[in-house]
Amino acid sequence: MENLSLSTGNETTAVVASFRVSMPSRWLAEGHSPSGVRPVEPVTLRFPANYPLCAPSLELRNDFSRSHPHINPGPEDDPPVPCVVEGSLTELLHASGLESVLNQISAWLDNAANGTLIDPKQGWEPVRRDTLTHVICADAGVLYGRTDGQERPWFVGCNYWYERDKPPGILIALGSESFPLARDTLGRLMRHGDSPNGIALGQSLGLVAGPAKGPDGSLPVCCDYLPESVATLADLRQRAAAYGCAAALNTGLKLLRDRLLEASTTARKDYPLVLPIVLLAKRPFPLIGTESPIELIPYVVSTPISDFCANGDAVPVEPASHVHTLSRNLLRRLSGVEDMKTPKPWTLLGAGSLGSNVAISLGRMGDGPSVTVDNDYFSPHNAARHALLPDNASGMGLLGNKAFALQQALLCLAQNTEALSAHVLDVLADPKLLKKAVPRNAWAVVNATASLAVRDALMEAAPKLHAPVIEAAIWGRGAAATLLVESTDGNPNVGDMVAALYERARSDSALSNALLPGGASHALIETGQGCRSSTMAMPDAVVSQFASAMSLAIADLRRDGLPMATGHTWIGLRQGIQVQWQQIVVQPSERIKVEASPWTIRIGADAHQAISEDINRFPGVETGGVLMGRISEATHTFYVTGIVPAPESSVRRADCFILETKGLKRAVERYSEETAGALYCLGTWHSHLTPSGPSALDRQTAEVLKEWRVAPSVMLIRHPSGYQASITEGIWQ
Questions:
Q1: CA of 695: how far to CAs of 70, 440, 718, 722, in Å?
Q2: Residue 493: CB partners within 8 Å, gap ≥ 6?
Q3: If you ran DSSP here, which 8-state letter would residue 326 be given?
Q4: DSSP 3-state assignment of 298?
Q5: Whole-number pLDDT of residue 695
Q6: In b/e form, how buried is each residue of 500-538, taking b as 16+ CB within 10 angstroms?
Q7: Burial zone of 71 (CB within 10 Å; 0-12 exposed, 13-18 middle, 19+ buried)
Q8: Sequence-distant (≥ 6) Cβ neighbours of residue 246 within 8 angstroms
Q9: CA distance 102 to 99
Q10: What is the pLDDT of residue 527?
Q11: CB 3.0-4.6 Å disulfide test: which of 315, 416, 417, 658 passes with 651?
Q12: What residues in the chain have per-residue pLDDT under 70?
């Protein structure tokens, strides 16, 4: 920067700074670069009255060539305004100071002189339109498809919205379906109305004009960067000619004017016409952030129909900016999530507070559930922590069925989810409903019901699900949360992981306090006279805090794949406003099917290791102990999580094992008390030195524990070839 000159106005202070531009000596001798940049360029910085709160605006000399990228749109008779930074100049000022702004101006001028404002490796920089007030929302992919090389216009429907009493700023949603402009089209399509709150709403049509093929059959490539200066239809026709789409534009404008003259709406000379026009230009390489070389260059005509028909090329035209139509792919890009062309469907069971939060979070990533199952309705008390808001139009604070309410919310996020209003247990028991709820190609089933019955029903239905289960749950009034992910082959399953979770709590006091609180984790909350609901009392912020982490974990699993040989457990423990998450890999369980019995025994990896270690501790003799864990009556499954070693005074010989009972009952009770009764005695185990079944003495030993239990008991034998088991029925069997 060489020198400064200062002038002061009522609202701004203008400083003209001269910047020395880096260029070769040959250009210095000529007095300018091939792109017209001079060795010394004056730049006007207009400092607003509230500087340094806001950055100065920038202006180049009036005759500075506008055929450069990164020049903001503006009238031809105004000084060109460069865009010297990606983002906000004010934010740069606050982040790095005025010196950084001046450095950006200098770098911009150097690049302009060298013709490197556009980097082909980065992509073609679209014409700057970020300061414009009119916005056209359109599906870029559909518009790219309009570049078929035919000299014809494309007409599509559109909706528009603007505030009558504020400066012009029309928001337009462009449709995707094209149609011929027949004589009766305008009468059916064009609508305009004003709402009491000052909003003008209407329907109209849009015109899309693409380039025509050249003699060689290819689309013309526009390599010139043309800054936005279109102000009339005459200007627009010239610009369309430069992009190679004049024929389509001119044909479309003539056809529209003819149809408007024929239509009855011309009886009202002041009837408004809002006409979005999109020109399509092919660039020499793909645009920044896209894989397409097609640039969308939108405009808006907003004028009474009579003026459009009578004033010809003098009709005003205003440039507009383009935003992408809401779509799954757009949400995924904005969330930084890898795009999936055909994502596998997943099913959500339970659209309550946790389920709805997870569904909406993933929906905002473009990956909401394909099916939602819930038969409950949105009650006023659900508003305390549900992801959806009640509809108070009726004054009742209701929202109907939760599954359908979630379906409508996801529809607003451009995603279709099927709502199934049925009890989850009924769905899992009915083959037809199950097939509807969980399609055969389903990726996973996410259970957010917080129902123990649903958990058991899911494990019972596992052979028919063809999809692993992910269980999301919050414990202890928001003290902890867990996300359990089954292996794709069902081993370990959710039952294994829940049992392992309780076993882990025995040696983790923080986890134990959250999972096994002294009082009930559910409290009866008054939700209406004569009606109580058993639910946890916690704020929505806690649910959202846990749900957001769960959603990220599920999104990672969607990207990276589900675990194939192990299960994954995420445990989140909350302390104040912080949540500490840990991920645990759960190894497969040993599975033993009891012959001539509906019962199955699943031995967790830790319990299997403990049994093996005890056998190694007593080589050459039989040994044993007591099995601890959980039992599922619904699925006829024993979940073995650990063992209580046999007292040292037990008899261990090569031909038999006799369990000493003195002090054993207290040891078993103490083990169970450490988990608040979540884990308990399941039976006994002992080893054989050779593959063989239970002896008479073994059966006698098993009877010792029967009197301690009313539920069935297991007698497990570990021998060199594996496990063998028998079941002793409980009192109620």
A1: 88, 46, 13, 17
A2: 459, 462, 469, 486, 487, 567
A3: P
A4: strand
A5: 74
A6: bbbbbbbebeebbebbbeeeebeeeeeeeeeeeeebbeb
A7: buried
A8: 237, 240
A9: 5
A10: 40
A11: 658
A12: 1-10, 130, 264-269, 340-341, 392-399, 517-536, 698-710, 729-733
Nearest Cα to Cα of residue 113 among 43, 227, 223, 21: 21
Beta strand 590-593 pairing with 600-603: antiparallel
Whole-number pLDDT of residue 731: 41
User: Look-up: residue for tokens 């069997």?
Assistant: 733
DSSP summary character for residue 401: B
State the Cα–Cα distance between residues 569 and 581, nearest whole angstrom: 10
From the number of C-beta atoms within 10 Å of its C-beta (0-12, 13-18, 19+), residue 709 rates as middle
pLDDT at res. 610:
96
Record the tokens describing residue 577, joined without a space: 């406003």
Residues in the chain: 733
> Nearest to residue 427, comparing CAs of 417, 416, 418, 438?
438
Q: What are phi and psi of 626, to 5 degrees?
A: -110, 140
| Alpha-carbon gap, residue 599 to 594, rounded angstroms | 6
Identify the bridge partners of residue 474 per DSSP, sorted by sequence position: 481
- C-alpha distances out from residue 240 to 176, 361, 684, Å: 22, 43, 86
Domains belonging to the chain, first-starting first, are 4-114 (3.10.110), 135-325 (no CATH), 336-523+533-586 (3.40.50.720), 590-728 (3.40.140.10)
| CB of 684 closer than 8 Å to CB of 728 | no
Please name the residue ranges forming H helices in 165-303. 185-189, 233-243, 246-262
Q: What is the pLDDT of residues 183-226, one digit of tens each?
A: 777 777 888 887 777 888 899 999 999 998 888 888 889 888 88
**Residue 665, token pair as written in the block:** 């009952």
Q: Which amino acid is at 54?
A: C
Verdict on whether the full-model pTM lies above 0.85: no
Quick one: which of 41, 38, 28 has its CA closest to 2?
41
What span, in angstroms and rounded, lies between the C-alpha atoms of 565 and 456?
A: 22
- Asked whether the beta carbons of 220 and 307 are under 8 A apart, the reply is no
